[in-house]
Write a structure and sequence with these properties.
The chain is an alpha+beta fold. It contains ten helices and eleven strands. α8 (about 225-235) packs across α9.
Length: about 425
């Protein structure tokens, strides 16, 4: 908990009050609100609900509760020093309670709160990235795409496909029943997956540049109906966190919506993997016939295995962590960028809400796509193959990229 807090507070070094209170995007709260919400949630669950103590800061309830104020009204905040004092007061009381808490009964709640802070810390990081781009006059919304489609053929692909691995048919154990598992990860269950091929790495900037260069953002041929409709409104011509610098060529493309990922996959004659396919490729050991917590095994996530926890502070080349390779030979399945999947976020059979119904259940609405793997800003407590992230398919502000999949039965053209 102390390590997680140090990572959170480090994000606020040299942050002025304007930045602290700025709403960089209508869908995201100011970073100062996220910091206060972390303290509020810890106090609510551990001091009030668990220890039975009265609220020490009732004036913060409406301000920092998730259902208290609309995001646009969360910009009038106490300053950083006051909120840090609030967090310190709450944390001191929490650690006093820890001395007497029935931790055997409550461990799952404490681990949930640790991940809650980690997740808000990543949101703080991406809001700061948006603010930085705005301050550097890098527009979040680019100019409108040309109305004239460019009718360019998809690049031809050799079969068997280059830079892809074959994941053979068979069942595997999906999900997570461990003490840190969130409600939407439970229970562990077997899933049958047919043979498919998966990219060894996330799609790189160099690869995505080919889609852009032939007018991919102008050509409805590659877009789903919903994706093309979104594009006409969004008016974008490149990923949000795009860089065409030569030293970024082998970095994963970052800041794409699900619609952009889907369009690129169509462009190269592939598709996005399902959540189950992605998780099997990341976690299943075909020799031991058992699932692993991480692609590399069961040793805790750290910067020897993947780009996570702000250790680098940006994306890295997709093959920079060979020790983190999955048993099937895939790179970068943890860290660097989140990866969109083809699946809608939904409950597993036997799902039980925890610690409250709205944490996951409110998002089982058929409107959120699953992302897997984590990013360079994800803390270790929220990294594992079974972890499930979810966002609307139009969201591109998160540190998200993707890799492509292909069915073994598909006959790809040959040069």
């Amino acid at each position: 908990m102390e390590s997680c807090r140090q990572t959170t507070l480090a994000l606020f070094q040299a942050v002025d009050y304007t930045t602290f209170c700025q709403q960089a995007h209508p869908d995201f709260s100011p970073i100062g609100w996220h910091l206060g919400h972390i303290g509020y949630t810890e106090a609510l669950w551990l001091l009030e609900h668990s220890a039975g103590l009265p609220s020490q800061f009732p004036q913060y309830r409406r301000l920092f509760a998730a259902d208290g104020l609309p995001k646009a009204d969360r910009v009038r905040l106490p300053d950083l020093a006051e909120i840090q004092s609030y967090l310190q007061t709450v944390r001191a009381a929490v650690f006093d309670y820890l001395d007497v808490a029935p931790i055997d009964e409550q461990e799952r709640l404490w681990r949930w709160l640790l991940q809650h802070e980690s997740q808000h810390g990543e949101t703080i990081a991406l809001v700061l990235e948006m603010i930085k781009r705005q301050q550097n006059s890098i527009p979040i919304l680019q100019s409108a795409p040309s109305p004239q489609p460019t009718l360019s053929p998809a690049p031809q692909t050799l079969w068997p496909p280059a830079n892809m691995v074959c994941i053979p048919a068979g069942s595997f154990e999906c999900g997570n029943d461990s003490i840190e598992a969130l409600d939407n990860e439970r229970p562990v269950h077997r899933v049958q997956v047919e043979t498919f091929w998966l990219d060894r790495t996330p799609v790189t900037c160099e690869q995505y540049q080919q889609f852009m260069a032939v007018g991919g953002y102008n050509n409805p041929r590659w877009w789903s109906t919903e994706g093309w409709e979104w594009l006409q409104t969004a008016q974008v011509t490149e990923p949000l966190y795009w860089s065409d610098a030569p030293d970024h060529a082998q970095h994963p493309v970052c800041g794409v919506s699900w619609y952009e990922a889907d369009a690129y996959a169509r462009f190269v004659g592939k598709r996005l993997p399902t959540e189950a396919e992605w998780e099997k490729a990341a976690s299943w050991n075909p020799i031991a016939l058992q699932r692993q917590i991480y692609p590399w095994g069961n040793l805790d996530a750290n910067d020897d295995y993947c780009n996570c926890n702000h250790s680098v502070g940006r994306t890295t080349p997709v093959d920079a962590y060979p020790t983190g390779m999955s048993p099937f030979g895939c790179y970068d399945m943890m860290g660097n960028v989140w990866e969109w999947t083809a699946s809608w976020f939904d409950r597993y059979a036997g799902f039980e809400a925890y610690p409250y119904r709205g944490y996951s259940e409110a998002y089982f609405d058929g409107q959120h796509r699953v992302l897997k793997g984590g990013s360079w800003a994800t803390q270790a407590s929220s990294m594992r193959c079974a972890f499930r992230n979810w966002y609307h398919p139009h969201v591109r502000e998160i540190f998200a990229g993707f890799r492509c999949a292909s069915d073994s039965s598909v006959q790809h053209p040959v040069d």
